[in-house]
Fold this sequence. Notes:
The chain is of the alpha/beta class and 190 residues long. It has helices at residues 10-18, 41-57, 85-95, 131-140, 167-171, 175-184, and strands spanning 3-5, 25-26, 64-74, 77-79, 99-109, 115-126, 160-164.
Amino acid sequence: xxxxxxxxxxxxxDLLAQIGVIPDAVQPADIDEAVLKGELxxxxxxxxxxAKAAAAATTEPGALILAxxxxxxxxxxxxxxxxxxxxxxxxxxxxxxxxxRVHTAVxxxxxxxxxxxxxxxxxVAFKRLSDQELAAYLAAGEWAGKxxxxxxxxxAEALIRHLSGSWSNVVGLPLHETRALLRAAGYPLG
Length: 190
């Protein structure tokens, strides 16, 4: 049974390896990830995960296609994957001292073309960041390309005072939900 991961994220590959899953191929999907007018965070994540899986399925017929999308949300606001230090500073300043949600939607398209979906939501609370803590985190560069401007699996973990839900979800792939989808599709798991 061929498994294709429709993601360029090395973190998702690492997380899959933690549960003994090594995809046969990695095929990132090139889709428009823009937020639709009025779109809320969880539906946005679901839509993008499904679109990534569908895009990869067109070139890999008969394979299992696994795709995910992670969204960091402050209330109804979707925080971007930060591309500049200024974006990261703005996101982390907004998250400082408050709780936010991380939604990861996972889509698995099976060999028959049937799509199954799961959504995981975690609540993360940052400590109130001092100017020095914020400057040090930004200087380390971990924020680049990360939803909400942080990587929980790195230095940011020391700045988080509370996490409710799945840690792997915050990294980018909720392992419990992913394993359930793979099992339901008949993928051999240890």
